[in-house]
């Protein structure tokens, strides 16, 4: 993760100023593989795909627009 994360940050800083890497969730799937769910702010999907292509060392299995965020604080007890 350190190598890929560092390279992603370098690409954003140097070549993709229109992208903001907000955060990533790093999880272990049922087969023991490390999987990441990355959240980027970007003007469109194409720029995220180009960033991914240049980053290499991983694959995108899905790309989704975030519609919003919720937390337990949004649902206070009665």
Uncertain segments: none
Content of β-strand: 15-25%
Number of domains: 1
Main sheet overview: 2 strands, antiparallel
Number of helices: 2
Number of strands: 2
Global outline: globular
For this entry, give a set of tags:
78 residues, alpha+beta, two-stranded antiparallel sheet
Brief characterization of the structure:
With 78 residues, this protein is of the alpha+beta class. It is built from 2 helices and 2 strands; from the N terminus they run H-E-E-H.
Secondary structure blueprint with pairings:
Layout: H1 2-15, E1 20-28, E2 34-41, H2 45-55
Antiparallel strand pairs: 1-2
How is this structure best described in words?
Strand 1 (20-28) and strand 2 form a beta hairpin. The protein is an alpha+beta fold. The protein has one domain (2-61). The chain is built from 2 helices and 2 strands; from the N terminus they run αββα. It has a two-stranded antiparallel sheet. The longest helix is centred in the N-terminal third of the chain and has 14 residues, at 2-15. The protein has helices at residues 2-15, 45-55; strands at 20-28, 34-41.
């Amino acid at each position: 993760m350190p190598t890929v994360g560092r390279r992603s940050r370098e690409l954003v800083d140097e070549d993709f100023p229109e992208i903001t890497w907000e955060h990533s969730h790093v999880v272990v799937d049922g087969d023991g593989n490390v999987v990441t769910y990355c959240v980027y702010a970007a003007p469109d999907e194409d720029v995220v795909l180009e960033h991914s292509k240049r980053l290499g060392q991983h694959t995108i299995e899905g790309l989704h627009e975030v519609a919003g965020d919720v937390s337990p604080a949004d649902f206070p007890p009665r």
